[in-house]
Amino acid sequence: MVDVILSLPEILLKKRNGEELLEDELKYFVDCICKNEIDRSQIGAMLMAFCLRGLNTKETVTLTKSMMNSGTVQKWDPSWKTVDKHSTGGVGDKVTFPLVAAVPLFGLKMPMVAGRGLGHTGGTADKLESIPGFQIGLTEDHMRRSLEEIGCYVTTQFGNIAPADKTLYSIRDITSTVSYPPLICSSIMSKKLSEGIGSLVLDVKTGVGAVTGSYEQAEGLARMMTEIGAGMGVETTAVLTEMDTPIGYAIGNSLEIIESLECIKGKGPSDLENITCAQGAVLLCGAGIAKTHEEGEEMIRKTFQDGSALDMFLKILENQGVKREILESLRSGDYDKVFAKPKYVENITSKTSGVIEAVNALALGKATVLLGGGRQLPGDEIEPAAGIKLFRTKGDKVQEGDILAEVHHDGRLSTALRTRIDEAFTIGTSSKPIKRVFAVVKAGQDTEDYEVYRKRS
Fold first, then answer.
1. What share of the chain is helix, strand, coil (3-state, %, to 5)?
2. pLDDT (tens digit, 9 = 90+) per residue, 44-73?
3. Which of 37, 350, 360, 386 has the most neighbouring CB atoms within 10 Å?
């Protein structure tokens, strides 16, 4: 029998020497953080030891579980099938909105905790708050009633969720240990699994606009998070998706809500609808509601076509404070009555004829932040009307003088920023169509090409 060490210096020494830490040792480390019985230098030393000596899957699962249990963990009616999704973040990523409009229609409960935007990726909470009256902060009683009566809510981080993660993240930021994959995954999953869910779909993006630039990095991150989920008893599936090109045509808070509503009405961009259907199908199959992935996709798509998803989305908005007259304008598509208007709308036009070979998601995401549509620092104010509306995307043919995009702003479009937006479009002679969904990753299984997976499962 291996002796458990409950002395911080000895635990540090053990990991410094490359040994595997036992469950009680990692729990003790996290417990000391929560009780403030550990020096910050010791936390920094442990984080660096993790990075240099490594954490295996068992250790990462234990660390994640200990971080999750350091705070509030939601407990729901055991008869409920609770599900959620998490995206690693991208440009024009508005998949959450059509997904929450469709999935609860099949009896699944979605207790969703959403984040705010920081850097070039937008935040779900900020986008919803561009709708007048929407209340993102909810009491626990309101959350429970929402699941009972509607099947979904969307809120920001509440209560005492994973307090150990807050401390660890603040020290990771100053010790150059932010980018270590097991620490990234434990941070994400400790918060996401505190929602008390039984099933999770992960949208792990790869490309210039993603946190993981290469496909191999994205696959590794997806593999690790699915293994953590499985290790904690939560059915977890990752879908690898493209983020070289913005999703759909809208980038910016109110612009993305409008495009999401069009998708919910069955009139949105095909790539947005396809990604949503892919993720929704994962949840429906996992719950035994759809027999095959293709059937699940069609079940989600049908809710957009028959109006039921729109009804559900408007119920969610009404439940979180949006008034009836606003809801009716959203239903009818009279968006000008609802959303703040930009002071200026300027066109970006093509300087040549040809085919759009690339639309740089990272460049347009950063440009949107500089227009006021995102944050450079956590406390920055958001300009909800700011953003970029694409008229053309990758694979489209253009003539010289055609409008490529509209820029919505309050006066922040400098000459340099205009040039940056213009240079995000690469125009040449040919282009391959956008392939949005690449593969599916599950714990203990080989990564599978998405087209093979959806036809087989």
1. 45, 15, 40
2. 999 999 999 999 999 999 999 999 999 999
3. 386
CA-CA distance, 306 to 265, in Å (whole number)?
Answer: 8
Element (H, E) at 246: none
- Dihedral sign for Cα atoms in the order 371, 374, 375, 379: positive
Dist. CA 73–CA 141, nearest whole Å: 15
Give the span between the Cα atoms of 277 and 362, in whole angstroms.
25
Query: What is the per-residue DSSP string for 160-180?
Result: T--HHHHHHHHHHTTTT-TT-
For 211, residues 6+ apart whose C-beta sits below 8 A from its C-beta are 88, 89, 205
Q: Are 263 and 98 in contact (CB under 8 A)?
A: yes
Q: What is the pLDDT of residues 326-366, one digit of tens each?
A: 999 999 999 999 999 999 999 999 999 999 999 999 999 99
Please state, in angstroms and rounded to a whole number, the distance separating the CA atoms of residues 347 and 418.
Answer: 10
Query: Which residues, in sequence order, are CB contacts of 11 under 8 Å at separation 6+?
Result: 5, 21, 25, 28, 29, 46
Residue 407 has φ and ψ, to the nearest 5°, of -110, 120
Alpha-carbon gap, residue 108 to 281, rounded angstroms: 12
Backbone phi and psi for residue 18, each to the nearest 5 degrees, phi listed first: 85, 15
pTM across the whole model: 0.92
Q: Determine the Cα–Cα distance for residues 374 and 120; give it in Å rounded to an integer.
A: 7
Q: What is the DSSP letter of 370?
A: I
CA proximity to 441, closest of 207, 220, 193, 213: 220
First to last CA, the chain: 43
CA neighbours within 13 Å on the CB side: how many for 140? 10
- At residue 443, the 3 state secondary structure works out as coil
Query: Which residues form the catalytic set?
Result: 86, 165, 172, 187, 191
Q: Rounded to an integer, what distance in angstroms lies between the CA atom of residue 115 and that of residue 124?
A: 6
Q: Closest by alpha carbon to 359, among 400, 402, 405?
A: 405
Q: What b-and-e string marks burial along 57-96, b requiring 16 or more CB atoms within 10 Å of the CB?
A: eebbbbbbbbbbbbbbbbebeeebbbbbbbbbbbbbbbbb
Taken as a whole, the chain contains a residue count of 457
